[in-house]
Amino acid sequence: MASATIAPALKQPAWTNDRNVLRVLAIVFVVFVYVLPLIDDSTKTMDFMTKAMIYVFLGMGLNVVVGYAGLLDLGYIAFYAIGAYTCGILTQAFHIPQWAAVPGVVVACIIAGIIIGGPTLRLRSDYLAIVTLGFGEIIRVTARNLTIDAPDGSPMVRGPSGMANIEQWSFGGWSFTDGLNIGGMFIREQVIFYYFVTTIALVLGVFGISRLANGRLGRAWKAVRDDEDAAEAMGINTYTTKITAYIIGAVWAGLAGQLSATQQLSIAPTSFEFLFSALILMAVVIGGMGSTPGVVLGAMFVSLVPNLLRNYEWAENRYLYFGILLVVVMLFRPKGFWPATDILPWSSEKIHKWLTARKAAKAGKDLIATEEDTYE
Amino acid sequence: MSETPRDTLLEVRDLVLRFGGVVAVDGLNMSVHAGEIVSVIGPNGAGKTSAFNCISGFYRANSGSIRFLGQSILRRQPSTITKMGMARTFQNLRLFKEMSILDNVKTGAHYRMKQHWFDALLHTPAYGKSERECEDDARYWLDFVGFKGDTSMYVTALPYGEQRRVEIARALMTKPRVLMLDEPAAGLNHSEKQGLIELIRRIQALGISIVLIEHDMGLVMDISERIIVLNYGKEIADGTPDEIRNDPLVVEAYLGTDEDEEDAE
């Protein structure tokens, strides 16, 4: 990343610096995602919108690690895999409902976060990226070779075939598969699941992480990212701060893994490849590291664009186009599409620069004019 | 613990720091008493900043002892030392560049804020209370150092002198007993230097001891109660500004003698 820091303009046009504008945009977005099923509740739409919300959730988790704490993690999907497998194994081995597996997923991810983060977080930047990349591969290869039988002897985890028949969420006697009848309107499983995922992604992912980022811990993360030594001099234990960021990122990824497993009702080890880690990282980077609206936008982008363009032949090379786009974004907006330092994209500095440039040009013209006058 | 003004807060004995074959600090002895302003001066490469980094925990000394408030801090982490009451600034400004001015200063209260991560997540009353207190504190110290302006701006938008002030406010936010300033006057113009002198005096008036590394002799002679002179990692003089000014060893260290003219730099 270019480290050139762009000083935000001292004077900004009022509305671009207004948090209320952001708030309105957020409300519009929330209303949109909740109203969407009323407009189009086809299985296809629900399917890829649910996936998009899972991406948003994952992106917000990775944003803590990469965006706030500044730790480049190339194996983030490992925690997602751990979450998916943990919930699958727990529900099938002990016949517990899906919600009862949540604490198990959280604990498994915390342990995994400590195991991988504990020894490696003493490393800085590039070295950490290499280790996390290796960790991601270890988990993927392990998953592919993992075979576990259920207590009753039937195969449960079947190596490259992963797991099948993952339990859908059920509460008491009611399961998502039963659908829901509200005032004569029947809501299908996919739609309920979509609402379920959306709510978790918005509440825990978007609002939860933004709140964390604005508190004491969030400030410590950002301080460590900006200058580790100075943070240490402020009485912040940088090691524990980094490991908390890592653990929170891991737990969020694990929960996303559980959601994804229950969406597909199966787990395939092939879905945990490096490309997926890179894709989520790309969502964070092109959106804007450490920026909530940026990451939401980035995650929606990387998940929706391939789906929306699925019918076009050239969409098969989407990773090529993503690569080109990434280069373009890094060239022209090195801090992402919606940087954390701006309240709105293209707000403040851009407009300010344009205004000052125009003013300067005008002043320059006047100057030339007066000079010409004197020469005459 | 009540203390008389001459209580020793910080005591460094026989401190040695080596980088490979280079001895950066060579048997340094120094002490800082309660409420005084001590300057550490010396030619470039004399080991001032290295000694600073040892004391604040960033470098591990090879041998010697550092006692702060009666406890050995030789093997402590920098964050632990800060919590004990020793704050520092850096030679080249090290503010958090992508954080607002207010947030920069608020980080100083990190260790004493009563707020857990779930308080922030759920916005509990404890969150509101601790954030309010922290913000009030931050505004108080920003006001104290004489910062006027929009605290929601990013620090990089500030001119250099103002950034220096913010850095001092951030260090004060940690509630230090001893404040170590590493070349606070570097890059400041004349009026800003006057402001800095006045600020250091006001910090001292709060009962905070100040250790100062500085190259600006005018400033050092003006405010120091005691000056320690280092050369080649060793303490060569320790005394009042007047004593230092007339010390032949100090004059030699700064101006060099005929024999070692080339080494004087």
Please outline what is shown here.
The complex is a heterodimer of chains A (376) and B (265). Chain A has 376 residues and is mainly alpha-helical. Chain A contains 13 helices and six strands.
Based on secondary structure, the structural category of chain A is mainly alpha
Number of strands of chain A: 6
Give the chain pair forming the largest contact, with residue counts.
Answer: A-B, 35 and 44 residues
User: Count the helices of chain B. How many?
Assistant: 10
Strand order, main sheet of chain A: write it out.
1-2
Indicate how many domains the architecture of chain B comprises.
2
- Radius of gyration of chain A over all CA atoms, rounded: 24 Å
Which regions of chain A are unreliable across 5 or more consecutive residues at pLDDT < 50?
A: 1-13, 370-376
The value of Rg of chain B in angstroms is 19 Å
Instruction: Write out the CATH superfamily name of the largest domain in chain B.
Output: P-loop containing nucleotide triphosphate hydrolases
